[in-house]
Design a protein that fits this description.
Helix content: 55-70%
Keywords: Coiled coil, Protein transport, Transport
Protein name: Protein MON2 homolog
Radius of gyration: 73 Å
Distance between the termini: 228 Å
Strand order of the largest sheet: 6-5-9
Oligomer: single chain
Family: Belongs to the MON2 family.
Pfam families: DCB, Mon2_C, Sec7-like_HDS, Sec7-like_HUS
Length: about 1700
């Protein structure tokens, strides 16, 4: 209920009346005046109540009168009355019905009571009520009231004192509250007159309003009183204590800062009065040194705890609230504060000072102001720095200095100290079981417990609150440390959170600005940053020194955590502000704490060196950065090996190390963006920790707990084992979080990892110890998570892995480098980039480039990795490689022979995959690279199967080209246009292999060139396979090439290849190759390199020849076909003349192939066949078969048209004209020359005495050579001259003369008994046959060649008796050749000679009458040649020979003699007759004897032959004697004569004599002789002469024989004559009887007289023979004598005879 409600007023009136009544009752007896006053007061009240509606107001107006009775009552000094009156007065006051005057009266009355010492508590109460309920008391009245309270404070009564103290405090507060209320009331209503500037008169308070004036006066006097001066306003003060004054000052300053800040008068008071006062009061504390000698010049006043402590409280308030006013003064205060922390000050002083510092530390804005006002000004004390450093050195001093004079440390003082230790004395929970260890710091033997002193962020002081203590309290051990520790943490927390808030606000503003002003640059306020940086710069050294020391000394996990958190926060803040040195220093501290003590890690040491040795002076004190000692008793959780190049002992990790490691991970994880170059420190440390803990990288670079085997010395406790996966996980998360870093930070991270990796590599380089793979693994991990911006880190990342790691000597290191690199590339290609890789060629090439670079690494394991990853890339991303193909193919193709098989095999797998799956997806420009790569696999020599398979791949590739020809052509031509355009712009010429062939053709040419290279590979199998593929490809797909390209194919591919093969073959090694690979047997035909090359040569030559054959018309349209033809022939010739039978024979086969070129069908109807031949399906052709060569096609560039374009050359024969005919004949003559040169060189016998190894051509070769001639001749016959025929003859003769090597003879020679020709001999005869047939049907002028042919054939005929010699070679005749003795065996030439002879006869039969044959004396030559076998007769190598010779002679003569007679007059046959006579002579009277084994039947047959000859003479020669030279006839006669009385050899047996005597022959001779002797057809005297001559010779011979016989018989006596002689005589006798018969038959006129005389003269001799003893002779004699009876006639007269 409010005091002004009617009920309250009514109650008040009632109460007042009651009070007055009570008063009058009490005073009735003793104090009548009072009674009267009371009663009149009742009346007064009633009157007021009756008269006024506003009762309270009326009461207030009349309050002096109303109060009067009560005042009088107090004056009685009677306790009961006084109490009653005071209560009544208080009731009035509480209803605010007391006027100013009344109040003054009340105060005066109270003062009297006070002086009398009555009702002191009631007095205080009344004053309080009076001042608090209203504001009527002012000025002196107020001051009197205040003094009254003060005086009551100093009474003897404790309760009164305390109550008075409280009242004073309240009253002081009321005064200031009134002022604040007054200010609020006047706010904004009245403008103040401006305050007078420079007002020095402290009494000039005229400008202040009433309440303000009171406050001012009060405060001023408080200062006076504390300073022990007389007050100005508070008149009547009798005594005052400083402590109470200071408390009051503090409370006013603390509670009403606004007053001082808003009113200049008050500010002035602060500056002029308060500050000097404080400084003055501090002096004893400043000068005092604990433990200083008493011999100092002047005794020093000892510091007094209560004052000192209160002063510090005042200072705290001043700094807190009035810092802006009192900048200079605060500087002094703060410096003083710093001094109080000094070790020489008393413990309690240091404790309260540290509490004061703590109070400052929780006010970051204040700290910032210090920094701005002092540290950032020139020539000013660096106050902020000093505060931090003071804290630092304070903490250090606690560890270093023993706690002097404070042995009762642990007996906790009363009050909050004890409370503090009970709250936080124990460390955080029990660590092991029940044993509770108190949280503490321990350093170099100093153990300091840690207490919980205040909640974080608030400075709850203990000793600054001990206002009741007069003596300095004892400080528990560890209290100061705990406060300092809290102060440090709060300082860090406050500053960092403040700066970070402001940074965040600034960043927010910046972002907003960018949104609203997109184009402009955000300009932050420069000042703010400066302040932040200055604050950090000022405090970091001290902080670091203190925190490092504490961290080192901490034994409590929570404390450690807090310290680490502080270090982390500062480090990250420094990073954000770009303060590198402090950032690195803090990070180094954390790093060092993570590692075992004294662990050598260069990065940290070098960084720390820049800090150690610096000390920061604080007013003569120094704070030294103490290096950690780490003797703290921490729980050991792991023992491991240090990561160092030289093996060292083991190192120990404690749980604190791991805790620090976690902080480090946390730092890197959350603040990676600001680490910059410190990444190096962080990562180096992590690497070492990871190593000591034995974590090893797994796939993707994630670290896993390694194998325990890592080192016998690695010991991990279970505690750490459970922690390891967590650590590994954070490590991974740390690098995963790199995806949130900005580009610059990311680069810092990568650089740090790279340099770390370099270090690890250096360590691992000298040995094959397990290297530290931390850096490489993390590079990989970082790369993998930053795929979206891989471009910015790709080069440094891959560059490092490539140039350094993959080339490292340590295999494990290399392996990981390659693993990382390939994993990155694979991930990069698989990542879904934006834009996709297909549209971002540059990125794709960037990603693939390192893969290519890996090829330069020489280590096989790296290449293996590279190729495996290529395989995986192909399998997963093969379709999307696009422009990356050249790089990938480059990698596949970068094989060298010094790499092992497995590498090549892997690479080849990749290639196979490419060829089978990816040819259609790659750009056409890469096809050439595919060809090159496949080629390089063909040429590698490590793995034969791969070489062979790669050739197969090339075939598949060619098939692909063929099938996709059209598409490829279009793509390539587009590409070509673009390139040409570029080249033109640059002004260069387009440089491309096989330019200017069209690009598609170039692709083919590259393929051909590659296969060509493989055709000269050192390995025979590769050559063979490549050769077959090359020619098959050209055959199958050559049609796609444009005509001009064929020029390149011929010259640059085929001839180039032939040349190389020829060179290699001719220089190949002839050494025998031992069986390859142990169990592989090599056939003897391939057992030298030379023989293996021979096979290649054969294949190549055949292939080229086939192409020339099948593509003849196409090639002929090239300008230089003739040159090409010449070159090809030259190759054929050199192959044919090579000393290898296989090659030479094959060369001839190729020669045959190119010569048997049939003119292709010229008819357009055959176009279809041609298409089918080149593999175009007929479907394409049928609908178009109507077009002719000139008609344009409907479809542009259809397949058929292209084929027409390519094949036109083949399908259209050149128009039959002179030119092509001429050209043809030139080609044929060129071929003839080649044939001639080949023949001449191969059949020319060796000149000197032959060495063992001289080369002799084989029979099949010669056969083939000769067999070529007929075909060739068909084309050159028109111009074939005699000269050429001679050349031919030489070759044929030479060929036939070549012997056979003995090891081949069984296969070529027929057995001796068979008369069979070898194929070579057949071929020779065929060649001559072709010639003579051609001559036969040819023009006249050809017939002059007949004689030459005869001559050639006759030469061959001679072979029957005289085998040809081949140089000076010794050959054995086949009959007596034991195959193993003779090197060379001559052929059996008889069948050949005989066949030749038959040919001669045959030919002569046809040509006997030809002029040339007559003129060239062919007949004579035939006879001359036959003379040899005829003369040898039985001595001929073969019996058949002379028989054939005879029959041939007979045939020839039967044709030739008539011709000879016909031309007798011309004399062309003159020389023939003597030859013929000699031939008859040699044959009929041979010098050779028949072999002994000739049977009688044989002999008779042979005789019959002789008889035939004589018959020829009798029929063909003698009847024409008049046409025949006389000498010849004479010779014939003599011969017949000889034959008619032929004497035989004496070797016959009796039984055979009749047969062997050739009686039949003799008889025929004789008859012939006689027949011609008595011929009655004598047409010329010459003929008669011949007959006569013949007869006389015969008779004379008979005479001689008979006479010799008679004599011999006589001489021999009884002995029988030799058989021979007997036979002869019998023969003569028979001849005589025959003659007698002939004479009988002849007309007498035909017989010459001389003849008769000779016949008669025989008679006596015959008679003489009668005496002979031989019965045979006797019987023959009878027959001879018998006919004489017919001539016995009587003689006729002479005359008659003479007349006739």
């Amino acid at each position: 209920m409010s005091t002004s409600s009617p009920e309250a007023v009514k109650k008040l009136l009632e109460n007042m009346q009651t009070d007055l009544r009570s008063l009058s009752m009490e005073c009735k007896k003793k104090f009548p005046p009072v009674k009267e006053a009371a009663e009149s007061g009742i009346v007064k009240i009633k009157t007021i109540a009756a008269r006024n509606t506003e009762i309270l107001g009326a009461l207030k107006e009349n309050s002096s009168e109303v109060v009067q009775p009560f005042l009088m009552g107090c004056g009685t000094k009677e306790p009961k009355i006084t109490q009653l009156c005071l209560a009544a007065i208080q009731r009035l006051m509480s209803h605010e019905v007391v006027s100013e005057a009344a109040a003054g009266n009340i105060i005066n009355m109270l003062w009297q009571l006070m002086e009398n010492g009555l009702e002191e508590l009631k007095l205080l109460q009344t004053v309080l009520v009076l001042l608090t309920t209203n504001t009527v008391v002012h000025d002196e009245v107020l001051s009197k009231a205040i003094v009254l309270c003060f005086r009551l404070h100093f009474t003897k009564d404790n309760i009164t004192n305390n109550t008075a103290a409280a009242t004073v405090r309240q009253v002081v507060t009321v005064v200031f509250e009134r002022m604040v209320a007054e200010d609020e009331r006047y706010q904004g209503i009245v403008e103040h007159p401006p305050p007078v500037q420079g007002n020095t008169n402290r009494r000039s308070v005229s400008t202040l309003r009433p309440s303000a004036k009171d406050a001012y006066m009060l405060f001023q006097d408080l200062c006076q009183l504390v300073n022990a001066d007389a007050p100005y306003w508070l008149v009547g003060m009798t005594e005052m204590t400083r402590t109470f004054g200071l408390e009051l000052l503090e409370s006013v300053l603390n509670d009403f800062p606004g007053v001082f800040l808003q009113h200049q008068e008050f500010s002035f008071l602060l500056k002029e009065r308060v500050c000097p006062l404080v400084i003055k009061l501090f002096s004893p504390n400043i000068k005092f040194r604990q433990g200083s000698s008493s011999a100092s010049p002047a005794p020093v006043e000892k510091p007094y705890f209560p004052i000192c402590m209160r002063l510090l409280r005042v200072v705290s308030v001043l700094i807190k609230h009035f810092y802006s006013l009192l900048v200079t003064e605060c500087e002094i205060f703060l410096s003083l504060l710093v001094k109080f922390l000094d070790g020489e000050k008393p413990q309690w002083l240091r404790a309260v000072a540290v509490e004061s510092v703590h109070r400052l530390c929780v006010q970051p804005h204040l700290l910032r102001s210090f920094c701005q006002s002092y540290d950032m000004k020139q020539h000013s004390t660096k106050v902020f720095r000093d505060i931090v450093n003071a804290l630092g050195s304070f903490i250090q001093s606690l560890f270093i200095l023993p706690n002097l004079g404070n042995n009762a440390a642990l007996s906790a003082p009363a009050g909050s100290g004890a409370q503090g230790s009970s709250q936080g004395g124990l460390g955080p929970g029990g660590i092991n079981g029940n044993q509770t260890t108190q949280a503490a710091f321990e350093y170099r033997g100093t153990w300091i417990p840690l207490m919980t002193v205040s909640v974080q962020g608030s400075a709850k002081a203990t000793y600054l609150e001990m206002l009741d203590k007069v003596e300095p309290p004892s400080i528990p051990e560890g209290y100061a440390m705990s406060v300092a520790f809290s102060a440090l943490l709060d300082l860090v927390r406050g500053i960092t959170s403040m700066i970070e808030r402001e940074l965040a606000a600034e960043e927010g503003a910046a972002a907003e600005f960018r949104e609203t002003h997109p184009g402009q640059q955000w300009q932050p306020q420069p000042g703010a940053h400066q302040v932040w940086e200055e604050m950090v710069s000022a405090c970091w050294c001290g902080l670091l020194a203190a925190l490092s020391l504490l961290l080192d000394a901490s034994t409590d996990e929570t404390a450690t955590e807090n310290i680490l958190k502080a270090e982390l926060t500062v480090a990250s803040l420094c990073g954000r502000l770009g303060l590198v040195t402090p950032r690195d220093a803090f990070i180094t501290a954390i790093c060092k704490a993570s590692l075992p003590p004294h662990y050598t890690l260069t990065v940290l040491n070098s960084n720390a060196a820049s800090l150690t040795g610096k000390s920061y002076s604080i007013l003569g004190q120094t704070v030294q950065i103490i290096s950690p000692s780490s003797e703290s008793h921490q729980q050991v959780v792991a023992v491991g090996q240090p990561l160092a190049s030289q093996p060292q002992g083991t190192v120990v990790l404690t749980s604190k190390n791991l805790q620090c490691m976690r902080t480090l991970l946390n730092l890197a994880h959350c603040h990676g963006a600001v680490l910059g170059t410190s990444w190096q420190l962080v990562l180096a440390t992590l690497q070492h920790l990871v190593w000591i803990l034995g974590l090893k990288p797994g796939p993707g670079g994630v670290l896993k707990p390694g194998r325990a085997v890592e080192g016998p010395s690695t010991v991990l406790t279970t505690a750490v084992m459970t922690d390891l996966p967590f650590i590994a996980n954070i490590l991974s998360r740390l690098f995963e979080s790199s995806q949130y870093l900005d580009d610059v930070s990311l680069h810092h991270l990568i650089n740090a990892l790279c340099s770390l990796s370099l270090e690890a590599m250096e360590m691992a380089s000298g040995n094959n110890k397990e290297p530290s793979l931390f850096a490489v693994a993390k590079l990989l991990e970082t790369g993998l998570v930053n795929m979206d911006r891989i471009e910015i880190l790709w080069r440094p990342l891959t560059g490092h892995l490539l140039e350094k790691v993959c080339q490292h000597t340590n295999s494990r290191m290399r392996e990981w480098g390659a693993e990382a690199l390939t994993a990155l590339i694979k991930a990069g290609l698989a990542y879904k980039h934006d834009p996709p890789l297909a549209q971002n060629q540059r990125l794709q090439l960037l990603l693939l480039n390192p893969l290519k670079e890996l090829s330069n690494v020489l280590h096989a394991d790296i290449r293996q990795k590279q190729l495996e990853s290529v395989l995986q890339i192909l399998q997963s991303q093969g379709d999307g490689l696009g422009p990356g193909w050249p790089l990938v193919l480059g990698v596949i193709g970068a094989i060298r022979n010094d790499q092992g098989e497995s590498l090549i095999r892997t690479a080849f797998q990749c290639l196979q995959l490419v060829v089978t799956d990816f040819l259609p997806t790659m750009p056409c420009t890469c096809l050439q690279i595919v060809v090159d790569v496949a080629g390089s696999f063909g040429l590698q020599n490590q793995e034969l199967n791969i070489s062979l398979t790669s050739i197969g791949l090339l075939w598949n590739i060619s098939d692909y080209f063929f099938q996709r020809g059209e598409a490829i052509t279009q793509d390539l031509e587009r590409e070509e246009e673009a390139l040409q355009k570029q080249a033109k712009e640059k002004g260069e010429t387009l440089n491309r292999p096989f330019h200017p062939a069209p690009p598609f053709d170039c692709l083919w040419l590259c393929l051909y060139a590659k296969l060509g290279e493989m055709c000269v590979d050192p390995r025979p199998a590769v050559r063979k396979s490549a050769g077959q593929t090359l020619f098959s490809t050209i055959a199958a797909h050559g049609t796609l090439l444009q005509q001009p390209t064929w020029h390149i194919v011929v010259w640059k591919v085929l001839f180039h290849l032939l040349g190389r093969v020829r060179t290699s073959s001719t220089t190949a090694d002839k050494e025998k190759i031992e069986s390859g690979g142990g169990n592989i047997l090599i056939h003897h035909s391939r057992d030298t390199a030379e023989k293996q090359w021979a096979e290649t040569w054969v294949l190549t030559l055949a292939g080229v020849a086939r192409i020339f054959n099948t593509r003849r018309y196409l090639l002929q349209q090239l300008g230089d076909f003739f040159e090409a033809w010449e070159v090809l022939l030259n190759h054929i010739q050199s192959a044919a003349l090579s000393k290898n039978n296989e090659v030479s024979l094959a060369a001839l086969k190729s020669f045959q192939e190119i010569l048997q070129i049939v003119t292709p069908v010229r008819d357009w109807d055959k176009a279809g066949d041609a298409f089918t031949a080149i593999g175009v399906p007929p479907v394409l052709i049928d609908p178009l078969s109507a077009y002719g060569p000139g008609r344009p096609l409907v479809r542009s560039d259809s397949l058929v048209e292209r084929l027409m374009r390519y094949n036109g050359a083949e399908l259209q024969a050149p128009p039959p004209g002179e030119e092509s005919a001429l050209e043809d004949s030139a080609l044929w003559w060129s071929a003839w020359n080649t044939w001639y040169r080949t023949g001449t060189d191969s059949t020319r016998p060796p000149s000197g005495p032959t060495e063992k190894f001289s080369f002799i051509p084989s029979q099949p070769f010669l056969t083939a050579l000769i067999q070529i001639f007929p075909a060739l001749y068909q084309h050159i016959k028109s111009n074939f001259s005699m000269e050429d025929l001679k050349k031919l003859g030489v070759i044929l003769h030479g060929a036939v003369s070549v012997p056979i090597s003995s090891d081949a003879s069984p296969f070529i020679l027929p057995s001796y008994t068979e008369a069979v020709l070898t194929s070579l001999q057949e071929a020779v005869l065929t060649a001559l046959d072709v010639l003579q047939k051609a001559i036969c049907v040819g023009p006249e002028n050809l017939q002059v060649m007949y004689p030459a042919i005869f001559e050639q054939l006759l030469l061959f005929v001679e072979f029957s008796c005289k085998p040809p010699q081949y140089g000076r070679m010794e050959t054995k005749h086949v009959a007596n050749a034991k195959y193993n003795q003779a090197e060379w065996v001559a052929l059996n030439y008889v069948p050949f000679a005989e066949r030749s002879l038959e040919v001669v006869v045959d030919l002569y039969h046809k040509t006997a009458c030809h002029k040339a044959v007559i003129n060239e004396k062919v007949l004579q030559n035939i006879i001359k040649t036959l003379r040899m076998p005829l003369g040898l007769k039985y001595a001929c190598p073969s019996e058949s020979t002379w028989k054939l010779a005879v029959s041939s002679l007979l045939k020839v003569l039967s044709i030739g003699l008539p011709v000879a007679r016909l031309h007798a007059s011309s004399g062309k046959f003159d020389t023939m007759w003597p030859e013929l006579a000699n031939a008859f002579e040699d044959f009929l009277f041979t010098k050779s004897t028949p072999p002994d084994n000739v049977s009688i039947q044989e002999f008779q047959k042979n005789e019959a032959i002789d008889v035939e000859v004589v018959q020829l003479i009798s029929t063909e020669i003698l009847p024409f004697a008049n046409f025949i030279p006389k000498d010849f006839v004479g010779q014939i006669m003599a011969m017949l004569n000889k034959g008619s009385i032929h004497s035989q050899s004496p070797s016959f047996t009796e039984a055979e004599i009749d047969v062997r005597m050739r009686e039949e022959f003799s008889k025929v001779c004789f008859e012939t002789l006689l027949q011609f002797s008595f011929s009655n057809k004598v047409s010329t005297p010459q003929e008669g002469y011949i007959s006569r001559m013949a007869l006389s010779v015969l008779l004379k011979r008979s005479q001689d024989v008979l006479q010799r016989y008679v004599e011999d018989e006589r001489l021999s006596g009884r002995c029988p004559l030799p058989r021979q002689q007997v036979t002869e005589i019998i023969f003569v006798l028979k001849a005589i009887s025959t003659l007698m018969d002939s004479l009988k038959k002849t007309q007498p006129e035909n017989v010459d007289g001389n003849t008769w005389a000779q016949v008669i003269a025989l008679y006596p001799t015959l008679v003489e023979c009668i005496t002979c003893s031989s019965t045979e002779v006797s019987s023959a004699l009878k027959e001879a004598l018998g006919p004489f009876k017919d001539f016995m006639q009587p003689p006729v007269s002479r005359v008659q005879n003479g007349e006739s």
